[in-house]
Specification:
- This protein starts with a helix and ends in an 11-residue tail after the last strand.
- The protein has 3 domains: 122 residues, Udp-n-acetylmuramoylalanyl-d-glutamate--2,6- Diaminopimelate Ligase, Chain: A, domain 1 (3-Layer(aba) Sandwich); 114 residues, NIF3 (NGG1p interacting factor 3)-like (Udp-n-acetylmuramoylalanyl-d-glutamate--2,6- Diaminopimelate Ligase, Chain: A, domain 1, 3-Layer(aba) Sandwich), CATH 3.40.1390; 99 residues, Alpha-Beta Plaits (2-Layer Sandwich).
- The longest helix is centred in the middle third of the chain and has 18 residues.
- Helix 10 links the parallel strand 14 and strand 15.
- With 372 residues, it is of the alpha/beta class.
- About 6% of the residues have low confidence.
- The chain has 12 helices and 16 strands.
- The strands form 3 sheets. A 6-stranded mixed β-sheet has the order 5-11-13-14-15-12.
Length: 372
């Protein structure tokens, strides 16, 4: 089966829920239509001009990037400048561009966890909590006779709200009767015998602050009176969403040795290091991308070493003054490692759905900084 962009968005949102993103961020569809057919996907860190051009030349249908093409609302589309020219090129060649940014950093199993695993950290926890909402399970109960009518109303409601990407659901292969092309989700259904009438329970996963509005919208539709509902809290892997991670090395290491290990593991030629090279560390904090904003959280965390990118002079001075260590591995190296893992997870989900897709990494990207 050949999926649409809407189908792929559903899979990506299950991996990196958009509602986890920071308030200032702009994840989601950057260019394209949810009705476009997707056969070939590229995954990259940045929507660079050369990446987009190569994707067009290779007949790619969807470019998934970590960094957004559009951060702030555009006041004009000037095709003689960036990003207007890139938007124009993508639209002319029907290349959709989709971004999973801070939501992919924050989510359990996302970029921070990939980086932590690469370094070899254990017993990992969040470095800093975010303001992302907690999830809950909404259970809608209806009879078999009214199931189709309820599903149609849910489908219409999801179609109206899917641009926000806020609603996720469990997926099941067990209930074959639920074949409607729901815009954002499949529903997990559990039949229950109740006297002579069979009832079906539909389970949906969404953030707690969206439940009231969703139920109100359903009650204001033709589904009013067709269902009963119950809300159950869900405990997330990290208890609450967080940015950055803290973990432990299998055995204590000196700062210099840890820096050498990271260079080998990440296959990078050089890092920047601050602190006593002989500092002994057993707990390590990290943040993928730009981690300067979490320096204070690192110092409070009781970890001895902080690993991130785009760290500043005064960050190094603060770390030195605290008697701690810091390793700047660069923005690119701290995030580009997500590509292969993301492709594997997306491909697994696509196979389960029976989608015919080619998903590959863009091989053009290089760190813009060169050590000379």
């Amino acid at each position: 089966m050949t999926p649409t962009l809407a189908d792929i968005i559903r899979l990506i949102n299950a991996l990196a829920p958009p509602e986890l993103a920071e308030e200032w961020d702009n994840p989601g569809v950057q260019v394209g239509s949810r009705s476009w057919v997707v056969r070939k996907i590229w995954v990259a860190l940045d929507p660079l001009p050369e990446v987009i051009k190569a994707a067009v030349d290779a007949d790619v249908d969807l470019l998934v990037t970590h960094h957004p093409l559009i951060f702030k609302p555009l006041q004009r589309i000037d095709v003689d400048s960036t990003p207007g020219a890139l938007v124009s090129t993508a639209l002319q060649h029907q290349l959709a561009i989709y971004t999973a940014h801070t939501n992919l950093d924050i989510v359990s199993g996302g970029i921070n966890d990939i980086l932590a695993a690469k370094i070899g950290l254990e017993n990992i926890r969040n470095l800093c909590l975010t303001h992302a909402p907690l999830f809950c399970k909404l259970i809608l109960s209806t009879s078999e006779e009214t199931l189709e009518a309820l599903l149609l109303e849910i489908d219409q409601l999801l179609t109206k709200t899917e641009s926000e990407g806020n609603i996720q659901t469990y997926t099941t292969q067990d209930v074959r009767r639920l074949q409607l092309p729901l815009s954002s989700a499949n529903l997990d259904a559990r039949p229950e015998q109740n006297g002579r009438h069979r009832r079906v329970h539909l389970e949906m996963k969404m953030s707690q602050n969206q439940v009231a509005g969703f139920i109100e919208a359903l009650n204001g539709s033709k589904a009013a009176g067709l269902f009963e509902h119950e809300v159950q809290p869900l405990i997330q892997t990290n208890d609450r969403p967080g940015i950055g991670r803290v973990g432990f090395l299998s055995k204590p290491m000196r700062l210099q040795a840890l820096a050498d290990k990271i260079k080998a593991k990440l296959k990078i030629n050089a890092v920047k290091m601050a602190g006593n090279p002989d500092l002994l560390a057993n707990a390590v904090a990290l943040c993928s991308g730009s981690g300067s904003s979490l320096i204070k959280d690192f110092i409070k965390s009781k970890a001895q070493v902080y690993i991130s990118g785009d760290l500043r002079y005064h960050d190094a001075r603060a770390v030195e003054a605290a008697g701690l260590g810091m390793i700047d591995i660069g923005h690119f190296a701290s995030e580009h490692l997500f590509v292969e893992t993301f492709i594997d997870h997306l491909a697994q989900k696509a196979r389960k759905e029976g989608f015919n897709l080619e998903i590959t990494a863009c091989t053009l990207e290089r760190d813009p900084f060169q050590m000379i």
